[in-house]
Structures are given as structure tokens and as C-alpha cells.
Design goal:
It is a single-pass membrane protein. Its main location: membrane. Binds the cellulose synthase activator, bis-(3'-5') cyclic diguanylic acid (c-di-GMP). InterPro entries: Cell_synth_B (IPR003920), Cell_synthase_bac (IPR018513). α3 packs parallel to α4. β5 and β6 form a beta hairpin. It contains twelve helices and 43 strands. The chain folds into five domains: about 170 residues, Galactose-binding domain-like (Jelly Rolls), CATH 2.60.120.260; about 140 residues, Chitobiase/beta-hexosaminidase domain 2-like (Chitobiase, domain 2, 2-Layer Sandwich); about 140 residues, Jelly Rolls (Sandwich); about 200 residues, Chitobiase, domain 2 (2-Layer Sandwich); about 35 residues. A seven-stranded mixed β-sheet has the order 34-33-35-40-39-41-42. Strands 1, 2, 4, 7, 9 and 10 form a six-stranded antiparallel β-sheet that branches.
Length: about 775
């Protein structure tokens, strides 16, 4: 019999449901919920249920996506006499578009003249259709379906919506408040496609197993001939982390099957042994060394198998590493790797996805330089992703140095034009874009190509930054009113950021209080400190199930997405051999009662689930609202465990926790413990959740119940990393005020004693003379 929810839990569930309903309605621009639900249900991405495996996307599946899934987080708000907004969509290599249509949910101003106003649907700069805006339908949500001819669709496409609006036959203000239309991001794009079978050629890798044009979650099964040993799992982890790095922007999962092929789509088959083998009816020839082969999936004419084989586990790992590190140099349907020799060993915090801390980084290294140019009076933000290395210590630091060189078109007259710099939606600095009538003659004479160049030096406060941050640069030009019948918008204002502008992280130390599950969720730290995970080990459950193995591979995919590098150095082991990896950071997986380390380290765990009995430690901080994103040193007392709660019955709770390694005080342990066989899937779904209204994974203990995340504890009782000796001394003294006074007093006494002895010696010398 299930336990009843407490009144507090019922209130929380009702509040969360209400928030989600309101958020959906606001995001859709007052779109009716049944319509929004129908649009979401049509999408293969939205069909995935948190905590459960997503459907495997294959060629020929319906390719239907809402504008939100195509990257439009809010409604398209179109203002003025001529306004355009766009989004991009691509057609996967495995598909050929035979037609398409767009379903728009929109509303518009009641003041518009129907004969002069319309919304144009444009595909690749060609008008596919126009939507009239009749007076009688204004002010309420409308639906329109526009067919897109197949001949307009290419591999890479831009879908634009152009709003043409007029409110009077006479002179009009081109930016009048009545000139508006809004298109909800619940609008959908539906592509009709046919499958195009790819070739059996390693030169196409990572195709067809990963296609960067496909925005659906990557679901790539791994197939083993039997229960895989640790070496085989290490090889599989290298490949899953590589695929995870490729699919970072959309997510990936890697279900595991033993001696069975998926009925549809692609799969990776891992085989180690000197003799020929048969895996799920597929004949694998005896390998002559580390071997990579691409061949058809016998269950699906459009599916492929990537067979990774070797005469032993060492060769299997070499084949996997060769594909992950040097796959671009391969060709043919089958190759044998003769030699693989890494030239340079990895260094701490040198992951390709992270900003280097040993040199200034040019913005052109972080974003396509073409995206640093904008046009128009309000062109929107230039967003530059900043992936900061985890564990950067911002203690007593002024901020990261940002040197911006930007250009703009000086207007003849203006008073409100500005250039703004923001970090994660927080304003950092704003400068006025001076018009021509306020510039010195010498400055005007130096203007080249009608653009004025200026410099800005900014400090970015890293205490406000997370591992994945956004630098936002925005030009806003003032539209100067000329008077009735004289207001004409001339699109001659431009702005650009010099690609040679730099951000500099030199001088920052890597030092962090632990445990910190937030940085584990966002960046895989501390395991990703080495990009290849060469100082990390995964402790799998005894008799791990295929669900446990799939969770392990999916975690490797998350780590690869964080670093951009395959986990070729990860070690896999079980509890009985954990002493052999004592010098590494340990990631411990458990589902139910199949992990002996949970009993061996019970005195260090702030949680335990044994049968129907559960125990959790709680802190006062778990009662505070929205306090998890910014923890400061003054909150230390509230983060300390104050209550141990034990109870029996109810559904088994899954949890994440971290603590200092019992085997090596310089290392960390993170435990992902599923309450049952599906618990690890629930934890992975919680880690992948991007719901802004839901609780997030932070602190040192987090409970996961279905789709509910409950942070319970945020103890920080040890530190990782290092600082320079002087900074370390200053930091230590700042945390031990009494010791600082003792040292100061001792220093005064010492100096006083030395002065006294010196003066006494001089006095004796003078008297003796």
C-alpha cells in the first residue's frame, strides 16, 4: 500500500502544476492548451517521457517540430511596418524532403488595414505563401497552414516570417504601437520525407550514427555478444563519450542490448576475441587487429551497424580510441588499425570545450565571426557561449578581463542609442553610441567606411557565472522622429564586434569547496578535470543489469558533451577491486541493493535506502526558497546537517550525493543510487532537465522521486585544487580570524622584541665606547 502524500507535498504538486500550465500558456502566446498539447505530441522529442527511454529516431519517422524545439524560446514578436524574424532547420542526410508545411498559431492588432497587411512565410528567401489579416479575426488566436514546395527545401534552410502592417491610408508612424503581430512558439514545421540509405564507408563517420543536421535526441544502442567485462565497457565508454560530445546540443542516450540487435535504426557492436563470432545472427570475422567495420543492420534496410572488434580487450580499446580520436582519416567499409600513438598527454582543465586559462582567447574562437555583425535599429543580441572551466576560484578577484573592440554607424542625431554588455542576462556595462553632432571633428575625420571604432574594457564577475554561461552584446539604436509624413525607416545602421576582441582568464586559480553536485551536473566535475577521464574510475554494481550499463554509457556521453573529448582513460571496476583505483576520483553507480560500497561506506553517506527503510540527513537550507544557486560562506551553518530522518514504506527514493574519498583525501566520490531498476534513468532525466520552474541539482545530497527533484543538504567540508602560496595564506587567514589575530600579535611581539634587542645592543656599544 502506497503512503499518502503529506499536505505540504500536495501543495507543492498543485503549485508546480499551476506554474507549468501558466508557463505553457504564456510561452505559446495565449495558445489554447489542447492545441499546444497536440503540437507537442506530434514531436518525437516531446514524446520522450522523463525517466523512460526516448523513442529511437530513424529515417522515415515523422519529422515534426515546434518552433520552440527549433530554438525559439518565446513568441515571435513582429513590430512595425516591415518586420522579419527567422529560425533555421536542416534536413538529415538520411532523409530527402518531399514536401513540408508550416502550421502557425498567431494573433495580430485589431488596428491593421486588411488590404495592406499580411504575414509572409519565406523559405530560403523565397515566399512560400502569404496569410491575410482580416479585421474580423484580429485580436484572437488564429491558425493557418501554409504548404512549402519541396523544391524550396535544401540541406540547410532558413524559415522566415515577414510581417507587413499598416494602420492608415495617410501618413503613418512606421513604429506605431498598433503595428504588431505575434506568432506562438507552439507553431510547428512538418517535413514529409523519404529515406536515403547511406553507404558503408568509414569516411562518412560519424554518419550515419550521428547526423549534426538532426535535432532529435541521439539514441544509439550498444550491443555486446555476452556480459561485457570491464575492458570492453571502457572501450564502449570511449565511443559513447565521443558520440555524446558530438550530440552535446541535443542530448544522447545509449541503451544496452546483449546478443540482440535493435529492430530499427543503427547500433554499435562490440566484440573481443581471436575467433570468428556470431552476434545476434551477424557474422563477425576473426579480427587481424583493432578493427572497425560498417555494414547493414539485417533488421532494417536503412540501418547500419558499427562493429568494433579486436583479438583482445586491449585491441578493442585501441580500435575505439582510434575512431574517437582519429576517425576523420579513415575510409572504406572496414579497416585494421596498425598504430595509435597519442602525441601529447592531457593536462588538467584543458578540455577543448573550456576556455583556456593560460592565454587570451579571441571571440572568433568561440563563435562564427559572421555572427558578430548585426543590422537594424533593434537587431537583437549577439550571444557568445562561454564555457568556463569548473573550479575557477573568484575569491578576491576583480573579474575576467574582456577587451572589446566594436564598430557602429553614427547617426546624425540621437539621444538614446547604446551598446550593452551582459552576462547571463545580468547587465555588466552600457555605453552611449554618440551621434555625429556630438563627435569631435577629428573623430569624424577618422571614420572609415561610415563606421566608428571604439574600445571597451570590462570585468566579468565570475561569481555570477556558471560552467555554461552566455556573453550577450546588444546594439540599440534610437529612432529619431522627424515629424508627420517625414518618418521613414532607412535600414542603414550597422554594428559589428571585432573578432580579435579577447577574454582573458589568466591569473585565476582552480580551487573549489566540495562536494558540489551542481558542478557535477553541469560540467561532470571533478571527473572531467582531465578531459580523457584518466584520473577517474566508475564503480559499477555487482551483476550490473543492461539498465545499469546503459546509465554508465549515458553518463560517459554527458561527460563527453561537457569536455568535447572522448573518455579514453576511464577505468571501470567493481566494489571488490576498488582499492586498485584508490588514487582516482570515483563515480559509484547503484540500482537497488546491488552495490556493496553503499554498505561499506554507510558512515559517510548522508542517505541510505535498504529495502523499505530509508534514511536522509537534512539541513535548514533545504527549507529556504531558491537559495541553491548562490551559496555564500555566511550560509555555512544553515548547510550543516541538523536532522536525520528515517522512515519505512513508500516508494524507494533515488538520490545523488558526494563526499571526500575514504581511500584518498585528495579525491572525491559521487554516488548515483537508484532506488530500483529504473532509478538511474530517473536520475539521468533529472540531470538533463531544463525546466526553469523545477528544482535543480545542487548541494551535496539530492533526492529524486520520479520527475521531482529535492535538494536536501549542501555541506561543503573539503576542498579540491590549489592556489598560489600567498593567496592560500590570505584565504586561510580570512577563514580563521582568531588565528589571524594571534599571528598579528605574535608578529608585533617579535618585531618589538627585535627592536628592543637592537636598541639595547646600540646602547651597550655607545656606553662601552
Amino acid at each position: 500500500m502506497k503512503s499518502k502524500a503529506s499536505p505540504a507535498q500536495l501543495i507543492r504538486l498543485r503549485q508546480r502544476s499551476l506554474c507549468l500550465m501558466l508557463a505553457a500558456a504564456m510561452t505559446a502566446g495565449s495558445l489554447p492548451l489542447p492545441v499546444l498539447a497536440a503540437a507537442a505530441a506530434a514531436s518525437p522529442i516531446a514524446a520522450a517521457t522523463p525517466g523512460l527511454p526516448a523513442p529511437v529516431p530513424v529515417a522515415g519517422d515523422p519529422y515534426v517540430f515546434s518552433f520552440k524545439q527549433l530554438g525559439r524560446n518565446g513568441s515571435m514578436n513582429l513590430h512595425g511596418v516591415d518586420a522579419t524574424d527567422s529560425l533555421n532547420f536542416d534536413v538529415p542526410v538520411s532523409l530527402v524532403a518531399t514536401g513540408a508545411h508550416v502550421t502557425l498559431y498567431y494573433t495580430y492588432s485589431p488596428a491593421l488595414l486588411p488590404d495592406l497587411s499580411q504575414i509572409n512565410v519565406i523559405v530560403n528567401d523565397v515566399v512560400a505563401g502569404s496569410i491575410p489579416l482580416p479585421k474580423e479575426s484580429s485580436g484572437s488566436m488564429q491558425t493557418a497552414k501554409v504548404e512549402i514546395p519541396a523544391k524550396l527545401i535544401t540541406e540547410f534552410n532558413r524559415l522566415s516570417l515577414q510581417f507587413i502592417g499598416h494602420y492608415t491610408m495617410g501618413c503613418e508612424d512606421p513604429l506605431h504601437s498598433s503595428l504588431w503581430a505575434r506568432v506562438a512558439n507552439g507553431s510547428t514545421l512538418d517535413l514529409q520525407t523519404t529515406a536515403l540509405p547511406p553507404k558503408d564507408d568509414l569516411a562518412l563517420m560519424p554518419l550515419p550514427f550521428f547526423d549534426r543536421r538532426d535535432i532529435r535526441m541521439l539514441s544509439l544502442p550498444f550491443v555486446f555478444a555476452g556480459n561485457p567485462d570491464n575492458g570492453t565497457l571502457e572501450a564502449a565508454g570511449s565511443l559513447s563519450s565521443w558520440f555524446g560530445a558530438l550530440a552535446a546540443y541535443r542530448g544522447a542516450r545509449f541503451p544496452v542490448q546483449v546478443n540482440a540487435l535493435p529492430p530499427r535504426g543503427n547500433a554499435v557492436v562490440m566484440v573481443a576475441g581471436e575467433a570468428p563470432a556470431t552476434v545476434a545472427g551477424v557474422e563477425v570475422a576473426a579480427p587481424k587487429g583493432p578493427t572497425l567495420t560498417v555494414q547493414p543492420n539485417p533488421n532494417d534496410a536503412n540501418g547500419k551497424l558499427l562493429i568494433v572488434s579486436g583479438r583482445n580487450v586491449a585491441e578493442l580499446k585501441q580500435a575505439a580510441a582510434a575512431l574517437a580520436l582519429g576517425g576523420k582519416g579513415l575510409s572504406g567499409n572496414s579497416v585494421v588499425i596498425d598504430k595509435l600513438q597519442p602525441l601529447t598527454p592531457r593536462q588538467p582543465y584543458d578540455a577543448p570545450n573550456w576556455l583556456p586559462t593560460d592565454r587570451p582567447v579571441k571571440l572568433s574562437e568561440l563563435i562564427d565571426p559572421k555572427r558578430l555583425n548585426v543590422a537594424g535599429y533593434n537587431p537583437g543580441e549577439i550571444t557568445i557561449p562561454l564555457n568556463f572551466p569548473p573550479a575557477l576560484s573568484s575569491w578576491r578577484q576583480d573579474g575576467a578581463k574582456l577587451k572589446l573592440v566594436y564598430r557602429y554607424t553614427p547617426q546624425p542625431k540621437s539621444s538614446n542609442s547604446s551598446f550593452m554588455v551582459s552576462l547571463n542576462d545580468g547587465l555588466i556595462k552600457s555605453e552611449v553610441l554618440l551621434p555625429q553632432d556630438k563627435l569631435d571633428k577629428s573623430v569624424l575625420a577618422a571614420i572609415k567606411d561610415d563606421a566608428l571604432t571604439r574600445e571597451m574594457n570590462v570585468r566579468l564577475p565570475l561569481n555570477l557565472a556558471g560552467p555554461q554561461s552566455r556573453l550577450q552584446l546588444r546594439y540599440m539604436y534610437d529612432f529619431v522622429k522627424q515629424g508627420e509624413c517625414q518618418d521613414i525607416i532607412i535600414d542603414n545602421v550597422r554594428g559589428s564586434i571585432d573578432p580579435e576582441s579577447t577574454i582573458d582568464l589568466r591569473g585565476y586559480d582552480h580551487f573549489m569547496a566540495m562536494p558540489n553536485l551542481g558542478v557535477f551536473k553541469d560540467a561532470g566535475f571533478p571527473f572531467t578535470r582531465m578531459a580523457d577521464l584518466s584520473e577517474s574510475a566508475v564503480v559499477l554494481p555487482d551483476n550490473a543489469s543492461v539498465e545499469d550499463l546503459g546509465a554508465y554509457l549515458s553518463l560517459m556521453g554527458r561527460f563527453g558533451a561537457a569536455t568535447g573529448y572522448p573518455a579514453t582513460g576511464v577505468a571501470v571496476t567493481q566494489a571488490a577491486q576498488v582499492d586498485k583505483v584508490a588514487s582516482r576520483d570515483l563515480l559509484v553507480l547503484a540500482s537497488g541493493q546491488n552495490q556493496p560500497l553503499l554498505k561499506q561506506w554507510a558512515d559517510r553517506l548522508p542517505a541510505a535506502v535498504t529495502g523499505d527503510k530509508q534514511r536522509f540527513e537534512l539541513a535548514d537550507l533545504s527549507l529556504r526558497v531558491r537559495s541553491w544557486l548562490k551559496l555564500d560562506e555566511d550560509d555555512a551553518a544553515k548547510r550543516r546537517a541538523r536532522l536525520a530522518l528515517a522512515f519505512s514504506g513508500g516508494e524507494p527514493t533515488s538520490y545523488l550525493t558526494g563526499f571526500e574519498s575514504p581511500l584518498d583525501s585528495s579525491r572525491s566520490v559521487v554516488v548515483l543510487a537508484g532506488g530500483d531498476a529504473t532509478g538511474l534513468d530517473q536520475i539521468l532525466a533529472a540531470m538533463a532537465s531544463k525546466d526553469p520552474e523545477a528544482e535543480t541539482i545542487q548541494g551535496s545530497l539530492v533526492a529524486v522521486r520520479g520527475s521531482t527533484i529535492d535538494p536536501l543538504l549542501a555541506e561543503e567540508n573539503y576542498f579540491v585544487g590549489s592556489m598560489s602560496p600567498l593567496r592560500m595564506l590570505r584565504w586561510w587567514l580570512s577563514r580563521h580570524v582568531l588565528a589571524m589575530f594571534v599571528l598579528i600579535g605574535g608578529g608585533i611581539l617579535m618585531l618589538g622584541g627585535l627592536a628592543y634587542l637592537t636598541l639595547r645592543a646600540k646602547a651597550r656599544k655607545r656606553l662601552n665606547a
